[in-house]
Amino acid sequence: MKIDSPAALAETAAALKAKPLPPVKLLVSMGTCGIAAGTAPVLKAVYQEISDRSLENAIEVSEVGCMGLCYAEPVLMLVDRATGRRLIYGDVTPQQVPAILAAGTDGIAPGTRTLERNWYYPEFETAAPGELQARIVLRNTGRLNPEKIEEYIANDGYAALAKVLTTMTSQQVIDLIVASGLRGRGGGGFPTGKKWQFAADQKSEEKFIICNADEGDPGAFMDRAVLEGDPHTVLEAMAIGGYAIGAHTGVIYIRAEYPLAVKRLEIAIGQARERGLLGRNIFGSGFDFDIQIKFGAGAFVCGEETALIHSIEGKRGEPTVKPPFPAVEGLWKKPSVVNNVETYACIGAIVRKGAEWFRSIGTAGSPGTKVFALAGKISKVGLAEVPMGTTLRTIVYEIGDGIKNGRKFKAVQTGGPSGGCITAANLDLPIDYEALKQIGSMMGSGGMIVMDEDDCMVNIAKFFLEFTLDESCGKCTPCRIGNRRMYEMLDDITSGRGTTETIDKLKMLSSTIKDTALCGLGQTAPNPVLSTLANFEDEYLAHVRESRCPAGVCAKLIHYEISDNCVGCGLCRSHCPVNCISGERRARHEIDQSKCIKCGVCFQTCKFHAVEKR
Amino acid sequence: MGCNCCGQTESAVRSPEDSAKFDELDRYIASLLEGQEPDRKRGCLIQILHRAQHLFGYLSEDVQKFVSARLQLPRSEIYGVISFYSYFTDQPVGRYKINVCTGTACFVKGAPKVLDEFKRRLNLTEGQSTPDGKFFLGALRCVGACSLAPVVMVNDKVYGNVTAEKVADILAECAD
Ligand SMILES: Cc1cc2nc3c(=O)[nH]c(=O)nc-3n(C[C@H](O)[C@H](O)[C@H](O)COP(=O)(O)O)c2cc1C
Ligand code: SF4
Ligand code: SF4
Ligand code: SF4
Ligand code: FES
Question: Is B116 within 8 Å of A599 when comparing Cβ atoms?
Fold first, then answer.
């Protein structure tokens, strides 16, 4: 079963494509989000129904990764192979399965929810005219069964590696990536080709190519989706990178919170080895390459590349000063390239389709696409892959369908704890690396947390500082002590103890920390504060001048009262977790302010708008 | 003190159950170290600790000594690593490990209220276990199921769209 030459690969792919397949393909979304939402019982019902009605030859079931439609999980997609017609069902229950299978692709099963627009175009590596999304990174994610290498091979899989190993020199590969203009998707946006060139220029017997799958930004989940949904794409790209820089070992550093991604990667590595696509003398080219997996253990700072390398070496994941850069002195002191999952996911397509093609998508300074993870107060939480230069308005309103429950848009946080917020004023800004930097945010990994009028921006800034505080490795003082002071100041403001002086001090301390912290974590920790201050200073001022939280979030600054509207139904009384509401039936109720924990349950449960937040 | 390299110190006091676990850990370590260059052995440390914590529930002094001997690394180094990574714990934890996600998506969707409610009902703060050893309460940052925010994990089970009111039901499900 070894595939030992490009010809053998092409033959295998052709044979797989020629194999007769059932007329209908049924995709079941088995990513972490889908499984958590209850896809497993749906899948069971699907297999049951297929065996009950002997549909084995009519329907092929494929367990795929995340389709990006997380808001509607569990999701099923039916594809008619002959016509290409697709039907996507969301919020599927096991009970609906028989009707869905009976309706097939000709009609819509009654009593179900089909997704508003029946769009889904993972096959497009270029956006068709009028389409908002273009899928390069996610081209196979949610479409191919990640546990079957055959599906990958039948869809151009490992063709890029074959091309590279048998028709290109290492330098040609690097030149191609340089020419494509690909920039690192892990946050910094450093040109990938340049990084590879640095490492290739180092003279060393041993080098490493590392995949950063730590995905530390809480609220970003695109790397998880790719690893769970299309692991071979990452393996293939790492082998290409290995050939380019002269490395024979790849290491994937993955966070412990992603057990499903680890499992799928292990399966994929095993399958690739079995077919000789990893191991010795790949495609008869004389090139040897293999990949190992290393685990994180819950430390955000390990996403920083020098810390990550220490962690792989079994040490505390503390960053060290650069230079030396990993490309010169990395894992076990050998030249190493660290790239992000999404960066790797672009490589194969660039090799197959060329640098020109890649540059034709996106903006001049930031070619290609970016995957954004939409979360927070947005209607359609999920993944969107759009050409660079797409506006926030398109992403939030057209793809994400706007804000949940008709609330008002306030801001989007990009770049996680290192980033900043984008406000309504910048909704029409074409997003790329430079544009985001200019408005005081950053691309980061592509997590987009959408916030509405009910979110207090001071509290959000405090949340991010608490995060960096938790995650600081404690090695340098500005970060360890300075960020703690910042946090305390924000805590003062949200508790009504702050003054305008506190705000001035925050600003001063921010710039000191930015200039003096050792690694990116500390240096960027003040960003959320600076960015919210720049855009929402009025909210800060309301807290310190009027002891008022305009969004009604900061518990110490609000209290709940029951008004004359109260009809005495007692609903709030029975829901209050600390039993601090009293009152006779049909008489106005009252809250014991000394016991109230300000959970807001009464506010939410009262059907008569009698509970007021002040 | 006898020789410290064979990893068989103090095995006499271990229960048969524990001994079996130590044997398993030993085999796992051996499989990882096979063919490994001596100065790169410690590159397996984090994997070994993951397996050990999976087997024993936490990384006791006994386990730390064992790993230290097998890898020929000082105990202090092992402890330094354990204390650095939030995933590792050197204290026994409750049987039901409740972890409230406090990632950004869950935060804006109300995770703090959910966490507060767990704290109140269990009378615990983050990182503690109940005295009867039933519950452990912790927080973690994003399990990648942000679409279901706020998310709570109880052992391996994911609960989505959790509100403070659902906390009691979740606790009730942890019956034994
Ligand atoms: C505190 C901190 C956390 C980081 N976390 C991640 C991460 O989770 N994933 C990632 O790919 N890069 C992360 N980075 C960026 C990496 O250091 C590195 O730049 C990146 O992996 C390089 O890959 P790229 O060029 O393909 O983007 C982080 C950086 C810092 C300072
Ligand atoms: S900035 Fe923070 S995380 Fe980075 S080295 Fe200093 S203390 Fe550690
Ligand atoms: S739920 Fe509203 S109307 Fe009913 S007792 Fe409470 S405050 Fe009054
Ligand atoms: S806010 Fe919460 S604690 Fe206070 S009265 Fe309302 S339900 Fe009770
Ligand atoms: S932030 Fe909670 S699952 Fe992502």
Answer: yes
